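Records of this kind hold a single protein each, on a pair of labelled lines. With that in mind, the following record should read easily:
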Amino acid sequence: MAKKDKQVKTFHPFTHENLEIKNELLNLARNAKLQNKDNKLEDNLASVLIYSSIAEYLAENLLQNLTHFIKTSSYNNFAGILFLEKVSEREGHMTLGAMIKELEKFSFPDKKDILSCFNGVCSSRNRIFHDLAKSDIETVTKMLIVDLQIIQEKCEELITRINTIYAGLGKILLPPVQETQT
């Protein structure tokens, strides 16, 4: 059996891959929340899961972008003689809490508000998932009503804030596209 060749994935800063599925999931979470007048447990849990997943993705994407530019900058500034091979000991899959701790080490536009949003999502999500099996249905339903609202608001704010800073950072950090004349 031949070993499959590893494909090298090209890094595209300040972009989101598979945007169609992310938008579809986001719309599903928004609609489940809007159409859930009876506060059905399964609809609320689905929304919490989707919004939490999107927040985790945004944290990971932001961390990857910041790490990429730190590594690239150190390599370029020191002619490849001195550079950062590894910014974090925990590179790879991390929890949202671990990614927040890593993001705290960086300086970037709107950091305070973005980290506040991530922390809001993280604490509400943790409260739900850690107490879900320990509580009765009435307590879980009340908890979901309160925490889903927090998670939704913070996640929607994260989407707006991160996309705004990505647009600005892209203009500053990425080389302008050269038009070719024919």
Notes: The radius of gyration is 20 Å. The chain has a mean pLDDT of 83. The chain has five helices and no strands.
